[in-house]
């Protein structure tokens, strides 16, 4: 049995997966680029352990990469409620907002990501592409 088919087999009712096991399975789907499947599994993990940062981050990534940008925005906003200084969450929220056409809000979160992790070329590049160097957001 390959890793992909293992990831798809549901656990019997008497062997219900823990949130950690669901997170691991969701991460496997993300690595395999099966983003919609990852989201389904990670939603279960989130229901079992709401507000867990690692689950919210993975869920947000699954939503974003499956084109569900409003849902990714919600997941990353929830992650920032858990940890307001999470630089990746600010970056990912900025990217989600950009996809939703909310460039001003996106720029704010990308600026925060850069401020929290100034050496990140990923964050700086995203901000530069959005026009983060503009003097005003007017």
Summarize the structure in words.
With 138 residues, this protein is mainly alpha-helical. 70% of the residues lie in helices and 0% in strands. It has eight helices and no strands. The protein has helices at 3-8, 19-31, 35-48, 53-65, 69-82, 87-99, 103-116, 121-130. Helix 2 (19-31) packs parallel to helix 4 (53-65), helix 3 packs antiparallel against helix 4 and helix 7 (103-116) runs antiparallel to helix 8. The chain is elongated and about 50 Å long. 36% of the residues are buried.
Compact summary:
The protein is mostly helical and 138 residues long.
Work out the helix count.
8
Number of strands: 0
What percent of residues adopt helix (DSSP H or I)? over 70%
- β-strand percent reads under 5%
Q: How much is the average pLDDT?
A: 90
The topology string of helices and strands comes to HHHHHHHH
Measured between the Cα atoms of the first and last residue, the distance is 56 Å
Q: What Rg do the Cα atoms give?
A: 16 Å
Q: Ranges with pLDDT <50 over ≥5 residues?
A: 1-6, 134-138
* Net shape: elongated
Q: Characterize the largest beta sheet: strand count, sense, and whether it forms a barrel.
A: none
Structural class, by secondary structure, is mainly alpha
SSE arrangement:
Blueprint: H1 3-8, H2 19-31, H3 35-48, H4 53-65, H5 69-82, H6 87-99, H7 103-116, H8 121-130
Helix pairs in contact: 2-3, 2-4, 3-4, 4-5, 5-6, 6-7, 7-8
């Amino acid at each position: 049995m390959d890793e992909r088919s293992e990831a798809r087999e549901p656990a019997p009712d008497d062997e219900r997966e823990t949130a950690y096991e669901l997170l691991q399975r969701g991460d496997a789907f993300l690595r395999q680029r099966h983003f919609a499947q990852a989201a389904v599994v990670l939603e279960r993990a989130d229901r079992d352990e709401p507000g867990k940062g690692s689950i919210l981050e993975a869920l947000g990534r699954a939503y974003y990469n499956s084109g569900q940008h409003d849902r990714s925005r919600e997941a990353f906003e929830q992650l920032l409620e858990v940890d307001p200084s999470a630089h990746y969450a600010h970056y990912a929220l900025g990217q989600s907002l950009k996809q939703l056409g909310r460039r001003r809000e996106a720029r704010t979160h990308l600026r925060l990501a850069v401020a929290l992790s100034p050496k990140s070329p990923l964050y700086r590049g995203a901000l530069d592409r959005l026009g983060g160097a503009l003097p005003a957001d007017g």
